[in-house]
Structure formats: structure tokens, C-alpha cells
Amino acid sequence: MSDALRIEQVKGTHAEILSALHGHCFSEAWSPESMASLFATPGMHGVIATDRASDQPVGFILMRAIDGEAEILTIGVLPEARGTGIGTFLLGIMLEEGVSTVFLDVAEDNEAALRLYRSSEFEVVGRRAAYYKREDGTRVDSLTMKRVVG
């Protein structure tokens, strides 16, 4: 996988690219301003994966780490690149950031993401009722997941 992708550490200057990628991966894009503001907080890490053949960004992951614990804030892979292992690869990069515990939230009906996280040894440790709002106005619970690294 790493031969097909170029990985770049992201920072606030990547806000426009991150917002555009987020918009292609999710129904509600985070604005460039929202992305930039994340990098004004301590402990932000993230990478963008770019396909070497097309020179186009295909995925990203953002994580905040403090005192050995981290939270995956968002991870996305373009729809046309899903199922190729990019999500697993990006998640693996963040799990190597020297943290002992990683948390994340995922919609309980997001089967693809749940498969990814379960295959990466994350376990459900909580639930947030009606946390995510869908385009049609319905709400879905979030599952809080945790992985102890190492």
C-alpha cells in the first residue's frame, strides 16, 4: 500500500484540501475554517494520502493526542478508493504515534467503518444516543470505541 501512496503530514495550511476531501467522503463537509481551527489546538496530528499514479488525494485522517491518549476525529477515503486498504493503512499510521489508548466515535449503522475498526481491535465502550444527524433529519446513535495500543 505504501508504494502506491504518498503520505504527507497535515497542518492548518491544508485546511482547504481537508475540507474538500471531507466533503467528498461525508454528506456534511467540515469547513476550511473548522479544519484550520483544529490545528490551533494542541496535540493535532494528521496525514493525507495521495495516489502516486494520479497525484490526487484519496484519503485523510485527523487525530488529537494528549498525555498518551488520542481521539480519531475523522478519517475518510474517497468513495471510488474505498475497499482498497487505504483506511486500514491510515489508521495504522495514527496507531504508531506513540499513544497508549485511542478513542473514536462512529455511527452505529456505518458497517464499513465498524468492520475497519473491529479488524483494528477497537471495542465498543459506550453509546451516544441520537448523536449523528442524517440529511433526511433522522438521527442515529454513535458508538464510542476504544483500542489499547501495544
Proportion in helices: 10-25%
Q: Summarize the biggest pleated sheet.
A: 7 strands, mixed
CATH architecture annotation of the domain at 5-105: 3-Layer(aba) Sandwich
Classify the fold: give the CATH topology of the domain at 5-105.
Aminopeptidase
Descriptive terms for the model:
150 residues; 4 helices; alpha+beta; 25% helix; single chain; 7 strands; Aminopeptidase
Q: Would you give an account of this structure?
A:
The structure is a single chain. The protein is of the alpha+beta class and 150 residues long. The protein has a domain at 5-105: Aminopeptidase (3-Layer(aba) Sandwich). Helices cover 25% and strands 41% of the residues. The chain has four helices and seven strands. It has helices at residues 15-25, 32-38, 86-95, 111-119; strands spanning 5-9, 44-51, 56-66, 69-77, 101-107, 123-133, 139-148. The protein has a seven-stranded mixed beta sheet with strand order 1-2-3-4-5-7-6, with helices on both faces. A hairpin with a 5-residue loop joins strand 6 (123-133) and strand 7 (139-148). Helix 1 (15-25) crosses helix 2. The longest helix is centred in the first third of the chain and has 11 residues, at 15-25. The radius of gyration is 15 Å and the shape is globular. The two termini are 22 Å apart. The model has no long low-confidence stretch (mean pLDDT 95).
